[in-house]
Amino acid sequence: MTVERIFPTGKLPLEFLQALLARYTRHDPRLVTGPAVGEDVAVIDMGDRYMVVKTDPITFATDQIGWYAVHVNANDVATSGARPLWMLNTLLLPGKGTTPELVEGIFQQLYDAAQGLGIVLVGGHTEVTWGLERPIVVGCLIGEVAKGRLLTSAGAQVGDKVVLVKGIPIEATAIIAREKGAELRRRGYDEAFLARAQSYLHDPGISVVAAAQLAAGHPGVHAMHDPTEGGLATGLHELALAAGTGLRLDAAAVTVLPEGARLCAEFEMDPLGAIASGALIVSVAPEEAEGLVAAYAKAGTPATIVGEILPPAKGITMVRDGRLVPLPRYDTDEITRIF
């Protein structure tokens, strides 16, 4: 008897996605970076510069969904070394409960977030859709980068140090506090804690555009990647797969922010696997790693060396409690436990 395979909520298994991309993509001489696991943008040769294109949906969050959409897409464009410039959004709204106030609120969020990053909203599509329980925004962001300044995840090199900027899990903390506020109050969480956790959206913030721009101008930086669904652990897997390398994470060196640590413990989540927008992974030459951390400190942004890029035969591992173990991967994000 054949058992039908059903995928759980979350990202497709990376190996399955790799096979799909290999089977259904076509070479184009102007396509510099095309579909690949671990590469979050397409890069197209425009002659004197590269155009960088990104699309990403917002499906977990409902509160401030427009704000999330702009920043999550801008993060990926910025990690390529490009400047985010133009954005289109597809806004799908539920058949029940969609009011003019709801729609205008999302438009206002998109506009305000775009204004803050110098992005122009240039088009998109909006409709009320049958079968939805909550709004969904799918963004498409376009940027530009000089040909000599492009960075890709595949650029990570054996021997590089892995730097984590800010900490984890910023986006998960904001989502939990905003979506489960009433439940957390029933569980005894006070208003000051909830306000702090909800403010993670803005402080430390889910944007890594400024952090990526700093790294892009620093010597020895070979690759950047921002961990999103599946958390830091999955983001590191994606980086290593894109570069064809191994990787070792020092779990004790990872900054787990206090409100995030407490909420993950409350809902029995591993912070390493919870949606982590707001953090930035940088692969940098070993002789430049300490200088990069110092540059972030000077800018008032925490950053820590948390690992190393290794030969592929070494695998993708982490040191935890003094033991070398496989680094887990979260194709289903830990935050799905609360939905």
Instruction: Please tally the helical runs, counting DSSP H or I stretches of 4 or more residues.
Output: 10
The pLDDT mean sits at 95
Q: Report strand order across the widest sheet.
A: 8-10-7-11-9-12-13
Any idea what the CATH architecture of the largest domain is? Alpha-Beta Complex
Walkthrough of the structure:
With 339 residues, the protein is an alpha+beta fold. It folds into two domains: 25-149, 2-Layer Sandwich (60s Ribosomal Protein L30, Chain: A); 153-338, PurM-like C-terminal domain (Phosphoribosyl-aminoimidazole Synthetase, Chain A, domain 2), CATH 3.90.650. It is 33% helix and 25% strand. It has ten helices and 13 strands. The strands form two sheets. A seven-stranded mixed beta sheet has the order 8-10-7-11-9-12-13, with helices on both faces. A hairpin with a 2-residue loop joins strand 12 and strand 13. Helix 2 (65-79) runs parallel beside helix 3 (100-117), helix 4 (170-179) crosses helix 6 (191-198) and helix 4 (170-179) packs across helix 9. The radius of gyration is 20 Å and the shape is globular. It starts with 13 loop residues before the first helix and ends in a 13-residue tail after the last strand.
Annotation keywords:
alpha+beta; 33% helix; 339 residues; single chain; six-stranded mixed beta sheet; 25% strand; Phosphoribosyl-aminoimidazole Synthetase, Chain A, domain 2; 10 helices; 60s Ribosomal Protein L30, Chain: A
How would you summarize this macromolecular structure in one to three sentences?
The chain is of the alpha+beta class and 339 residues long.
